[in-house]
Automatic annotation (TrEMBL):
Pfam families: TGT (PF01702). It comes from Drosophila gunungcola. Zn(2+) binds at residues 311, 313, 316, 341. HAMAP family: Q_tRNA_Tgt. This is Queuine tRNA-ribosyltransferase catalytic subunit 1. Its EC number is 2.4.2.64. Residues 395-428 are annotated as: Disordered. It catalyses: guanosine(34) in tRNA + queuine = queuosine(34) in tRNA + guanine. The keyword tRNA processing applies.
Length: 428
């Protein structure tokens, strides 16, 4: 059978947690196989800051993300076509996913005007006008040649309320049809629609229902992780995964904090992306199970240990915390060394979750991870609630129990004092 007859994306659930909604899968794309759950490093301009493609391959990164809006501006469609697509242009042989440019409606709102036709941007580089329509977004992504493309969606700030949220959701549905119509390379590239609806459960449900009527190979959940409360965040994720089909991959856009990844895998998400690992590296911070090490701090000056004894990345094999403290934020190479470690950490975390799901030991993995991640702090209530919603009960927090008992005791004493006072008034 020729490759053109094989779908450009197939997805198979290979294991499911018997307790939560977590699942491990295998996604087969034109350029590589991708094991899920997966974290996708962000190479906005066709490159990760401070990391070469060969270094990503050494870390066994299977898929990365590029941005349609930025790549459409620079280098532009003509250059990408001349190069034979982004894979050849950047020297990356594995899979690529491209965002549609819709997020820039929020991040570059002062430069954008939105109507039914599309989004009119002023370029942040030369102030020129650029109209990004659903059709033009797909045209750029076809030139990029990404394995997975996103529809252009109407994105509003997560804290937006009122009729604008429903308008954006309905427009997103209309725009996906225009994207599907404009898609010229369906034999090579797969288009994902994006679930919108803000923090409104009925709107999210309506959007999922409408998008499932389209012939697509996967779904993205958008419009979250932008300033809403964590309680609202996890509930919207849970609502979406509860309605999305089992046999297609689910991508949660813009999420990358370790605890968030673990919670959202438990809620049934398969794919994630975020600039956080490389961005925090530029500030001298290294990711570990307990959170972050701020290597600029003086306490690391004489620390001759690697960032993480369990990590096998090239940075941890060769360099000490002391050396990284010495160069952190002062030398450009520090960004590279810490980015390599931080991406390795994210990928290792996802690999550990996949293994735990396949062994049907995921609930215990979650409990062990949260105990390490919040070793010195109470586990946030939203995490406990989110995990309890999928039948993972975290051990009680003794410190919180003591605090609750103290509050209860004080309240009981206060009530007792009030009762005594009332009795004295009544008998006087």
């Amino acid at each position: 059978m020729s490759s053109s007859k094989i779908p450009p994306l197939t997805y198979k659930v290979v294991a499911e947690c018997s307790v939560s909604k977590a699942r491990a899968g295998l996604m087969t794309l034109r350029h590589s196989e991708v094991n899920t759950p997966v974290f996708m490093p962000v190479g906005t301009q066709g490159t990760l800051k401070g990391i070469l493609p060969d270094q990503l391959i050494e870390l066994n990164c299977q898929i990365l993300l590029g941005n349609t809006y930025h790549l459409g501006l620079r280098p532009g469609i003509d250059t990408l076509k001349k190069a034979g697509g982004l894979h050849k242009f950047m020297g990356w042989p594995r899979a690529i996913l491209t965002d549609s440019g819709g997020f820039q409606m929020v991040s570059l709102l002062q430069l954008a005007e939105i109507d039914e036709h599309g989004v009119n941007f002023r370029s942040p580089f030369d102030n020129s006008q650029c109209m990004l329509t659903p059709e033009h977004s797909i045209q750029i992504q076809n030139a990029i040649g990404a394995d997975i493309m996103m529809q252009l969606d109407d994105v509003v700030k997560t804290t937006t309320t009122g009729p604008r949220v429903e308008e954006a959701m309905e427009r997103t549905i209309r725009w996906v049809d225009r994207c599907i119509e404009a898609h010229a390379r369906d034999d090579d590239q797969s288009l994902f629609p994006i679930v919108q609806g803000g923090l409104d459960v009925p709107l999210r449900q309506r959007c999922v229902s409408a998008l499932m009527e389209r012939q697509v190979r996967g779904f993205a959940v958008g419009g979250l992780s932008g300033g809403e409360s964590k309680h609202d965040f996890w509930r919207m994720v849970d609502v979406c995964t509860g309605y999305l089909p089992r046999d297609k991959p689910r991508y949660l856009m813009g999420v990358g904090f370790a605890a968030d990844l673990v919670v959202c895998v438990a809620l049934g998400i398969d794919m994630f992306d975020c600039v956080f690992p490389t961005r925090t590296a530029r500030f001298g911070c290294a990711l570990v199970d307990s959170g972050q090490l701020n290597l600029k701090q003086p306490k690391y000056k004489l620390d001759m240990e690697p960032i993480d004894q369990k990590c096998h990345c090239s940075t941890c094999k060769r360099y000490t915390r002391s050396y990284l403290h010495h160069i952190a934020t002062n030398e450009s190479v520090s960004c590279s060394l810490l980015s390599i470690h931080n991406i390795a950490y994210q990928l290792r975390l996802m690999g550990s979750m996949r293994q735990a799901i396949q062994r049907d030991e995921f609930p215990q993995f979650v409990k062990d991870f949260m105990a390490k991640h919040f070793k010195t702090d109470p586990i946030p209530a939203w995490i406990r609630e989110a995990l309890a919603a999928v039948n993972i009960q975290l051990p009680a927090d003794p410190e919180k129990e003591d605090q609750d008992l103290e509050k209860k005791t004080k309240a009981e004493k206060r009530q007792e004092t009030e009762n005594v006072a009332e009795e004295q008034v009544a008998t006087s």
